[in-house]
Amino acid sequence: MRIKEIDVSRLFGLFDHSVPMKMSDRVTIITSPNGYGKTTILRMVASLAAGRYSELRKIPFRDFRISFDDSHLLQIIRVDAPREGRPSAGGDLALTLFRGNKKEDQATLPALPADALTIPQHMIERTIPFLSKIGPSLW
Question: Are the beta carbons of 96 and 75 closer than 8 angstroms?
């Protein structure tokens, strides 16, 4: 199973991208000016493939779709209320897998509350002493 096309809508609240893969060449080159989301789209694919949904959740987008050459389509929709018409980072993600036009599976990945993973800073500093603090809550 190979990726045939990647689509993202409202990336950063601004861009709609469609990236068709060169299936016969087996190499696709993505070009656009800086700041249009090339690296972000690749990070989205990598985060999804690795199951790092928290990283995917940080990227502001409305709809992310990956089409495969075996007629499967994976669609991820952000299910939070957009602010001022722009999709936010965070919020629930709805994952749906289609085969052709038929829905095969669906799951919702709920967002964690902001304070759910709060770890006191003194515990981080005491537990992992080799880290260097580079900001108020950044190591």
Answer: yes
CA distance 93 to 58: 11
In tens, the pLDDT along 67-83 reads: 999 999 999 999 874 55
Torsion of CA 6, 91, 52, 73, to 10 degrees: -30
Cα 33 from Cα 43, distance rounded (Å): 17
Cα of first residue to Cα of last residue in the chain, in angstroms, is 39
pLDDT tens digits for range 96-135? 999 988 999 999 888 766 555 567 777 777 777 777 778 7
- Taken in order 71, 102, 51, 19, the sign of the CA dihedral is positive
- SS3 (DSSP) at 138: strand
Which runs of consecutive H residues, i.e. helices, occur in 1-139? 38-50, 53-57, 121-127
Beta strands in 3-133 (DSSP E): 3-11, 15-20, 63-68, 72-78, 93-99, 102-109
In angstroms, the CA 73 to CA 65 distance is: 7
Question: Domain segments of the chain: what residues?
Answer: 3-111
Q: Which two tokens stand for residue 30?
A: 């993505």
